[in-house]
Write a structure and sequence with these properties.
alpha+beta, eleven-stranded mixed sheet, 4 helices
């Protein structure tokens, strides 16, 4: 192979469409992520793709829902009818880091695998465990309990301010 042929080959590789880049550009336009977890369909706006999780705002639950990648077997990306909503964002952090950035303690919804969801106060997240407080049934005093992140279908971060933000986004 001569040098001219080598350079022509290299140039043709750069001219050909980059399918990975095209996929990234296409995904970046999306503002809605829909997935099915444990028989429940979750439609999340303003989606975030992290290193080992997906997250987005669930309007009906008024919470940011975080789902570990193993639970998100099939994800459908689409463009919400409201073009003013935030588009898909990527974060190079793990779920544990993402939640820690929000400075617990805060109200949360926990959905353990095969069980109903429950409300509690997330107080810390460390070593793949979510520590939470809720009143002891017998004494009424709050007690700290932990659950493995891997044992959750999803974790909801509840912030009343976010509901107002979504209303503002839609009214712009």
């Amino acid at each position: 192979m001569n040098l001219d042929a080598l350079f022509e080959d290299l140039e043709s590789q750069f001219v050909e469409p980059n399918h990975c880049f095209e996929m990234q550009a296409m995904l970046a336009k999306n503002s809605l992520l829909t997935m099915r977890i444990d028989g429940e369909e979750l439609s999340l706006i303003a989606p975030i793709l992290g290193f080992d999780f997906v997250a987005g705002y669930h309007e009906q639950r008024a919470a940011w829902i975080c789902v570990g990648m193993p639970k998100a077997a099939e994800m459908k990306f689409s463009i919400d009818r409201d073009s003013r909503l935030p588009k898909l964002r990527r974060r190079a952090v793990k779920l544990e880091e993402f939640i820690s950035e929000m400075n617990p303690a805060f109200a949360a919804k926990f959905k353990p695998v095969g069980q109903p969801c429950f409300d509690a106060v997330l107080v810390a997240i460390e070593d793949s465990l979510a520590y939470f407080k809720r009143p002891n049934v017998r004494s009424g005093e709050p007690e700290v309990t932990a659950i493995a992140l891997a044992a959750l279908d999803w974790l909801g971060i509840v912030e009343a301010k976010d509901s107002a933000d979504v209303t503002q986004w839609r009214s712009r």
